[in-house]
């Protein structure tokens, strides 16, 4: 039997939030020293979600494409900076490479989905464009950050090998080809693992949300299948772009390797 959507009161949210005390107790008993981080993370998450909730209420009410575009731009820049910050070895243009990769992959896939798959009217409708882009950016930045981290760490660790190939006449692309492939593969592993167990071990987030909102199970399944393929495409495009842009930034046109430094 189909049930109606159940709206949660704030006291019910507070009951769920109290479960974080379990994490705090574990940290205290095992002396993990995570109490402060748990508190900060919990407060930060709550404040951020409340802010975006009020902001989305406003944007949904305005229903204006400039407001949607402004929020999308902010989301993209934050996602790119987050991806770059997870790469602990610095190099020139690191943030730019991450932001460009996040933007291109996220926007391309989202626009394609809105224009050809979901087709809301208008196609930039905030109810569809913003949540869809948010899911895609969140997964793309994970793949991008893992790919960039793997690439720069591998480049630093195998520096002598790479320079040896360059001395023997290899181009910068040929010299780092094994590391490039390994980095791209690393960035794509999380989404491949998620796709492998989706529906068997876990119910993905969007499908769960739609079921809780009262959608028909098969409708929720169709949406989730679409979302998983969109995310997979964005992760692949973003990871490849980020790794190739990183390659161009850590090497020169004269096929030399730059020195990479650990971020403070």
Order of strands in the sheet with most strands:
1-2
Low-confidence stretches: none
Oligomeric status: single chain
Count of the separate structural domains = 2
Radius of gyration: 21 Å
Distance between the termini: 56 Å
Structural class: mainly alpha
**Secondary structure: number of strands:** 2
- The whole-number mean of residue pLDDT values reads 89
Instruction: Report the order of strands and helices.
Output: HHHHEHHHHHHHE
State which percent range the strand residues make up: under 5%
- How many helices? The count is 11
General form: globular
Largest sheet: 2 strands, antiparallel
Q: Name the helicity range.
A: over 70%
What does the model show?
The structure is a single chain. This protein has 264 residues and is mainly α. It is built from eleven helices and two strands. It has a two-stranded antiparallel ribbon. It starts with 9 loop residues before the first helix and ends with a strand.
Tags for this entry?
264 residues; mainly alpha; two-stranded antiparallel sheet; 2 strands; globular
Q: Can you lay out the helices and strands and say which pair or pack?
A:
Layout: H1 10-17, H2 20-29, H3 35-62, H4 65-85, E1 89-90, H5 94-118, H6 126-157, H7 159-167, H8 172-175, H9 177-197, H10 205-212, H11 217-250, E2 261-262
Antiparallel strand pairs: 1-2
